[in-house]
Amino acid sequence: MSDRARELAGALAAVRGRIAVACSAAGRDPSEVRLLTVTKTFPAADVALLTDLGLDGFAEARDQEAAPKVAELAALRPDSRPRWEMVGRLQRNKAGSVARWAHAVQSADSPRLVDALDRAARTAMTAGERAGPLPVLVQASIDGDPGRGGCPLAALPALADRVDGGDALHLAGVMAVAPLGTDPDEAFATLSAATERLRRDHPGATELSAGMSEDLEAAIRHGSTCVRVGTALLGGRRLISR
């Protein structure tokens, strides 16, 4: 095992331990919380090592980085079947590319983007580039700051309705990031309440993607079913090498 593989194995054990402890404290089963590894700025070689360690869920924030990385990992580990998800702010003109490589999009935050994703997913399905509808999470803005992305909580139900009405989309749930400088417990409690209200009309929207390296414990306390972890697994951000 290489030094990098050992480093990643140790980090993965530590993150899984944190998830287990947080679930135990919240009276939850660790199997209820999915670990999604955020691999932005890290090379496909690192992702390949993580697949060797048993991980199969990865997330990217920029289409221009993700699309070639997905192809590179397929060449490095042709027998792997990873699940790739888009978690970053998404421009409508990138929807076509994202619909081809992403198993799911977690950052739908406007009706126009939802419509673009629906058209793109329909086109990809017709071309045989997708096997089925695109799962979409609506991104909530807990504090309503438009500069950080996300849909204001008051507008979240209407956005969920828009996704649910898409012919080539599947409403999978809600995603959010705790606002900077706020108490994560307070932020995730607000998010949890908004998510429960949304599920009354959309009971199939079961995913709550919340919590990252620094606040995953608080997110798990408030019902997160998916934690998005980058730094705690891979280390400080660095430029990918080609």
Walk me through what this model shows.
- The protein is α/β, with parallel strands linked by helices and 242 residues long.
- The chain has a single domain (3-233), classed as Alpha-Beta Barrel (TIM Barrel), CATH 3.20.20.
- It contains 9 helices and 9 strands.
- The chain has helices at 3-26, 44-52, 63-76, 95-101, 111-126, 156-164, 184-201, 216-221, 231-234; strands at residues 34-38, 57-60, 83-86, 104-108, 134-141, 151-152, 169-176, 207-209, 226-229.
- Strands 1, 2, 3, 4, 5, 6, 7, 8 and 9 form a 9-stranded parallel beta sheet that branches.
- Helix 5 links the parallel strand 4 and strand 5 (134-141).
- Helix 2 (44-52) packs across helix 3 and helix 4 (95-101) crosses helix 5.
- The longest helix has 24 residues, at 3-26.
- The model has no long low-confidence stretch (mean pLDDT 96).
Please give a handful of descriptors for the protein shown.
242 residues; alpha/beta; TIM Barrel
Question: Could you give the topology of this structure?
Answer:
Elements: H1 3-26, E1 34-38, H2 44-52, E2 57-60, H3 63-76, E3 83-86, H4 95-101, E4 104-108, H5 111-126, E5 134-141, E6 151-152, H6 156-164, E7 169-176, H7 184-201, E8 207-209, H8 216-221, E9 226-229, H9 231-234
Parallel strand pairs: 1-2, 1-9, 2-3, 3-4, 4-5, 5-6, 5-7, 7-8
Report on the biggest sheet. 9 strands, parallel
| Number of DSSP E strands | 9
Query: How many individual helices?
Result: 9
Poorly predicted runs are: none
Going by helix content, strand content and strand pairing, the class is alpha/beta
Rg over CA atoms, rounded to whole Å, is: 17 Å
Output the CATH topology.
TIM Barrel
Number of self-contained structural domains: 1
CATH architectural grouping: Alpha-Beta Barrel
Helix residue percentage? 40-55%
Please identify which CATH superfamily we are dealing with: Alanine racemase
Could you give the distance between the termini?
23 Å
The share of residues in extended strands comes to: 15-25%
Order of SSEs: HEHEHEHEHEEHEHEHEH
